[in-house]
Amino acid sequence: MDVAMRAGAAAATAGPNHATGRSAATRRPRVGVVKFASCDGCQLTILDVEDHLLEIAERFEIVEFAEATSRRSSGPFDVLLVEGSISTPEQAVEIARLRAEAKLLVAIGACATAGGIQALRTAAEHEAFRAAVYPVPAYVDSLATARPISEFVHVDAELRGCPISPEQLVEVLVSLTTGRRPQLPDQAVCLECKRRGIPCVVVARGLPCLGPVTRTGCGAICPAFGRGCYGCFGPREQANTAGYAAALVWQAANPAGDDPNAPMPPPDSRRPVDEADVGRLFAGFNGATAPMRSITDKLGGRPVMPLRATLASPPETLLGGPPRWGAMPADTIKSEDPDGPRG
Amino acid sequence: MSSAQRTGPGAAPTDDPSGRSEPVPIVATLPPGPRERLLALVTRRELDAGATFMHEGDVTASMSIIVRGRIALRLRVPERGAVTILTLDPGDIVGWSAIVPPYRATTSATTLEPTELATIAAEELRAILTSDAEVAAAFLPRVMETIAARVEATRDQLLDLFRGVEVDPW
Amino acid sequence: MVIGPDTIATTPTQFLPRHRFDDLVEALGEGGRRVVGPTIADGAIVFADLAGHESLPAGWTLQTSPGRALLERLPDGPRESRTFQYPVSGEGIRRFTFPSRVDALAMETAEDGTVRVRVAAPAEPMPLAVVGARACDLAALAVHDRVLVGGPAIDPDYAARRRDLLIVAVECALAGSTCFCASMGTGPEVTAGADLVLNELDDGFVVRAPTAAGERVLATLGLAAAGPDRATTAAAQTAATRAAMGTTAIPADARSLLLANLEHPRWDAVAERCIACANCTLVCPTCFCTGLEVGSGFDGAASSATRTWDSCFTEGFAQIAGGSFRPRHRDRYRQWLTHKFATWWDQFGTSGCIGCGRCVAWCPVGIDVRAELNAIAETAPTPAPIAVPARDTVEAADTGLAPLEFSPATVVSVIPETADTTTLRLATDDPRILAGLPGQFVMVGVPAFAIPPISISRFHPDGLELTIRAAGAATSFLTKLRKGAALGLRGPLGRGWPVADAAGRDLVIVAGGIGLAPLRPVIDAVLRDRDRYHDVRIYLGARTPRDRLFVEEIDALAASDDVLVRVTVDRAGPEWLGRVGIVTQLFKSVRGTGADATAFICGPERMMAATADVLGDLGVPREHTWVTLERHMECGVGLCGHCQLGTRFVCKDGPVFSVAELGEDLRREGL
């Protein structure tokens, strides 16, 4: 039933959603997008909100977004979207500086909110692969582990995911302009699967799926394609990973019979066959978070990096200091003249 | 309090203008022997409104039982000044620190209206409680009850149940 | 326990040969009706458009056990080409009558400030025929009929979808290990709710038409009679299914068992395994809890609210600004199981469980409700039967409400009360709202925001007042509205304070913090008719002197002779000469008996419980002591399921309750 309501003569209501158009006196919020140790995927997702991009550009002033614009700014920001984990001492200093410049700091993506997959490294392993990869490991200065933003500065909001969901990003931006609370439900992926009508891959196919202990937001993409959830949105509130892992271990020990005639595509995720397999399931993009790590610690399955033999000794030409950017090491090495050009 | 107040079941106690004849709360309910011996140590004091008779941190001079009036217990909080954490009514004890080491006042006490106190000097009270087992056995449990009730009530104050909630930045 | 719109008469059976099944599908599709039935997709059996016999899961069965529902080829033999030789599929037919996402509300603000709040017109559902519903699915549909269209509030979308639905049921030829409909009295025989009933034999289907609509379909097919042999085979098949399940899967009188064991250690045990993933609630065909997802554009001038499947297992389900009422998985599992098997009876006069066993099969960790109930029964004494209380059936017409509609209101003035609380005086000419009672509340709608319930803090001949504390984004926004703003109100809702109960008695009013707001209309009513009440005492608590509400009014009241007013705060500066301490200090030493008193209490629950205790010690009878509860509400009319406390919907059975009727539930943790 249509109910039309008339406001009083002076329809003056507070709140941005009753403003008609942009008034000259109201400035657009300044938005920055920055990145630390990450793959850039979350920033790409920001560009992915195609339908809304134009309106976003109208309502927000994007002052720093290296991937999208050459305009640069070091602050101040009304909203700062931060991608990536803190992995080096310089980054730790920079995030503190940025926090002071930002009214609202939103950590986006699994790296920024949980450390990312790189957070699975330990200090000892890091030593070992630095030595294997870099001729002069001392030139590579990293923190012992990659850490989420919230371990360094106060974070006002989080967008989980690997990458984040464009719909959730728009929801956060809409909540900023309207003043309402963004709806980022902390529920299991299972709710989304069921709402969409996707049959549960755990129950119907015995596939490993982290959905029950993972926060929704992705729209249950992976189960929609017949594979288990990777857990890329991170553990949901009070995720009972211990209880779930116990059930998965039982499933591994009591495999259901596979009917060769079953009308479904062969699963591309291997069903866990032992405890370490189950543990490996939890060592993913959010594997460094406590609920996930507690399982891998207990059951095993942490990924172990196979390392090639380390370089016996660094090339002589690099012993004098780090190469300047733009150096052509191959040419330099080939040069007969040890004092030859380096740039 | 208005004299035109309706009284009926559940009415609050009204003031008795001739306070002198009012019995001393708590002490009046003790068995006869201890009651007489304690009453012998009691002095009645009348205080105007706004009188501070106990200072936080000072040696406690006496323990008092409120006969009439209202007392505010206050703590000194440097950034905030004096904060009233509790008010006491007739029947309440002020200055239990008189009998608990180190015998120093843990709060200040100020009258909010004309008040009558039944006071026992701290040293005399400690002496009789040490020497007179019957008085101690009768009086101390009553003191404990009062203090325990106060602790319980303070816990609910501590919960800050009427506190508002923090609202998100947007 | 099964109810249905039709009675099943013993109709003569006919026989549909297998090769003519497509004719049935065509007949069902007459007039453009959409026909859906079971098909195989994504490794499971799902209901989708049925082209004909070829779409059915021929030759397949489903092996169900706790945590598993696996497709398997039928073994070689006479039944190998059957198409319904499986127990219940993961999804029943709920999606067709109760879709997971449905438009519920549309709100928009025009340029000139007018606000339109529209209850979304129910979808124009295509006429639908559902093939393959089982007896348990029909029992679930009957339960949903009671919940969603049984009054007083009716879900318009469900009502519309239910109207033109043709159901072709199938009597189960086998039972899964997770099935227990026979124990719940809901199957496997189809006794109500279907237009056509099929019994599958190897070479075709025995079919009967219990309704006129079913008869019309059959008439077009011109089938031969089934004959006594086939009819007997069909009946025997169903009987064998029944025998395979047994009838004692769960303890007798599960309701009394659960209500008597709300603190049983089994709840903690199951909580270790339960991962609160909500799968059980989402496969359960009787679950009805929904939430409202609000979406809007960047300017917030327009917004829509979508009714979405929700679950009592989520954190947000029982959450209000101060926290969650069911923080632990233990609390949520207990809520689900006791609602399904116990409190559903109190609410709807029927069991919530219809024995389909889906929750057992589709639980990723394989928790079996039958095992849980039996475990409690084995370790607890046999409970005395707890009778289901008689319910007043409230017809939608009785209330005179169209409960879902929003009514216009305009802000006439704004009165700041404290740092975080504001009173809005609103003008409205809706006679229903103006006739509201002290203690009732309204749902307040503004575009782009969630819709909070707010107690009415005063009535006027031309409007009302709402005293709002900024506790979240929506309430913060409301506290910042200015004169002339428009909003929508749904109400008045709930059961208010029984002011008449205090007539001829003493009246004690105890309010803590914002709790004074819902009590102010009581004070107004009492002052208008002072002689009806004897001693009237008002005891108020606040955080600090600056957090007191309605200060001038209360001071004036305290100075008058009409009532006794005592105020205390939790702490104060030296300028405050009043009392400092918890509110119960104000009256715990009152002399005299409270036997002739009625008490109304409002504040944080802990404060209300403590106050009720002290008043009880003073002799105030529990049947005359009333409190008002706050719970998470999305609809305010008893359809969304969020606000439940044990047997009660706080929105429609409350929010005012007597301490006597609440009993232990007022203090039970995590209920």
Compact overview of the structure:
The complex is a heterotrimer of chains A (343), B (170) and C (671). Chain A is α/β, with parallel strands linked by helices and 343 residues long.
Structure notes:
The complex is a heterotrimer of chains A (343), B (170) and C (671). Chain A has 343 residues and is α/β, with parallel strands linked by helices. Chain A has helices at residues 41-47, 50-59, 89-101, 109-114, 123-133, 166-178, 189-196, 201-205, 221-224, 241-253, 275-281, 290-299, 329-334; strands at 4-5, 30-35, 61-65, 77-83, 102-108, 157-159. Chain A folds into two domains: 11-178, Rossmann fold; 189-299, no CATH class. Chain A has 13 helices and six strands. In chain A, strands 3-2-4-5-6 form a five-stranded parallel beta sheet. In chain A, helix 3 links the parallel strand 4 and strand 5. The longest helix of chain A has 13 residues, at 89-101. Chain B has three helices and eight strands, in the order αββββββββαα. In chain B, strands 1-8-3-6 form a four-stranded antiparallel beta sheet. Chain B has a four-stranded antiparallel beta sheet with strand order 2-7-4-5, with no helix packed on it. In chain B, strand 4 (71-77) and strand 5 form a beta hairpin. In chain B, helix 1 (32-39) packs across helix 3 (133-159) and helix 2 (122-131) crosses helix 3. Residues 1-19 of chain B have low confidence and may be disordered. Chain C is of the alpha+beta class. Chain C has four domains: 14-245, no CATH class; 254-379, no CATH class; 402-493, Beta Barrel (Elongation Factor Tu (Ef-tu), domain 3); 502-628, Nucleotide-binding domain of ferredoxin-NADP reductase (FNR) module (Rossmann fold). In chain C, helix 9 (266-273) crosses helix 11 (329-348). At the A-C interface, strand 1, helix 2, helix 6, helix 7 and helix 8 of A face strand 5, strand 7, helix 10, strand 13 and strand 17 of C. Strand 1 of chain A pairs antiparallel with strand 7 of chain C, so a sheet runs across the interface.
